[in-house]
Amino acid sequence: MISRRTLLLGGLSLAALAGCAGTPQPPTSSSDPAEPLPPVTDRIDALRRRHNAEIGLYAVDLDSGREIAVGDGDTYALCSTFKAYASAAILQRAQQGRLSLTDAVPVERADIQPHSPVTEPRVGTTMTLAELCQAALQQSDNAAGNLLLRTLGGPPAITEFARSVGDDRSRLDRWETALNSAVPGDPRDTSTPRALGTGFRTVLAGDALDGAHRQQLDTWMRANATSSMRAGLPAGWSTADKTGSGGYGTTNDVGIAYGPQGQRWLLSIMTRAVGDDPEAPNMRELIGEIASVVVAELHQPQ
User: Fold this and answer.
1) Do the domain assignments include residue 12?
2) Mean pLDDT for each 10-residue chunk of the chain (302 residues)?
3) Where is the signal peptide, in residue numbers (predicted)?
4) Which of 6, 34, 36, 226 has its CA 20 to 30 A from that of 202?
């Protein structure tokens, strides 16, 4: 049998526990919303270690000029990000009257490359330059990318265009899909986050295109179905961006994020896996996490 003394002691203990449970506890420092975030370099380093990745980041608030740069001068493979330059160059030539977006381009069986979801069903017919730009930007269609390159005069035309929009590092040497080999140390088909971001800023928010053609590029890119950075942005945001992926886990996403209060943030994110495995998986999840870091940092008061 339980003694009267045990019952009394038990009752006192329960009362004490109830009192503790009902007393609000001060928040820990880690949950204090007013506590400053760790340095952005520390947060990027943590992502680098967790994903076993190399990370290059260049971000700019286009209205305030505030920048975030981590490894922004390191070299990465361009992969399919070149398709934004190819489409912008087509638009620029249309603006100059050198071609028309309605010009028809034959699509032959020999043109089809792996991942050509839009062009492959069109074999034996023609596609307009506008349709090819849309396929290249929104679905990253590889045959469309090559057909745009052919129209422009081949990969060197992309290098030339890059220089014309303030990008001093990007170079394109090969065609799809060879340009995606992304072998570390190979200088072909490469850029840096800062150089590529600078060029994208010029074509999407600068004077490389007139208003109508710049708006067309923005409209196409806002409908990009392959975006990785959007996963890290708050609700209500949109992006005009272009992705690229290749060997050694190379995964890129570059463009402008637009916020509901009129924010315009350029994000140029280039990544690859550490190591020498050409079949390393892509880093799409990491791209979204880096975008989240940028959002948190740019929301911080200076």
Assistant:
1) no
2) 38 37 34 72 98 98 97 98 99 98 98 98 98 98 99 98 98 98 98 98 98 98 98 97 98 98 98 97 98 95 77
3) 1-18
4) 226
